[in-house]
Amino acid sequence: THTLTHTHLRTMFDEADLPCDICRKRTIVDGNDIIKCTECKAIVHQKCYGVKNIPSYAWYCKRCEPHSLVRPSKKKCKFCPMKEGIVKETTSGGWSHILCAMFLDELSFTGEFFDKVDDSFLPNNRLGKAFCYVCTNMSRPNPSFGASVKCVYPGCVKRLHATCGHTRSLTAFGTDAKGFVFGSAIVCPQHKNKLAQLTAKEDGEEHASVPQKTSMTKSAVAKTKKKKKKK
Description:
There is one protein chain. By secondary structure, the protein is an alpha+beta fold. Helix content is 21%, strand content 14%. The protein has 7 helices and 10 strands. The chain has helices at 6-16, 46-49, 98-103, 133-137, 162-167, 192-195, 218-230; strands at residues 34-36, 43-45, 87-89, 95-97, 108-110, 116-118, 149-150, 159-160, 171-175, 181-186. It has a two-stranded antiparallel ribbon with strand order 1-2. Strand 7 and strand 8 form a beta hairpin. The chain is globular and about 50 Å long.
């Protein structure tokens, strides 16, 4: 039987020109190749999903790992209703889409290569109040499931799940100094045309022109909690 090596994967993707499911870019550079899950066929950059080393043979995302004690169907994101999509385990023992972790301010990653999604600073009362604009407009059941992100357009109060926004091309990304991707902006459908002003227009460009999202770091969250207690 033919073994699909890293080199063969790279050749296939260069020919097929398949984009990353997260950043939707096709560019391949040293240390940030594009790989495909053998099972679910998810396509990601190393630095979008946090893959330090690419195996010589089959590669599986965290949802599809063959020796996992949890079935893939049970690895459901706790922050949005989308059942599909690439996920990682949370520090609380649940699961989160990479996209939800990138856009929800209270979530972050542990380790340089996104070992887990740290959800320790997201209070339980934040869940179940998403009121996703996209889900509501599409008459989906339970649009309040999980947590949502506010449209960044000034004055807009609409909120949406990160994955709902991403499937409709309402998200923008940036890259840090080491080339890792982060979610920088999300807008509602009404302000989709404004998002183009933040993103690089040429497919080969880096996201340097995208302003980095202001994330609530652990220290900032801790300070906020202390202030609330004092009050």
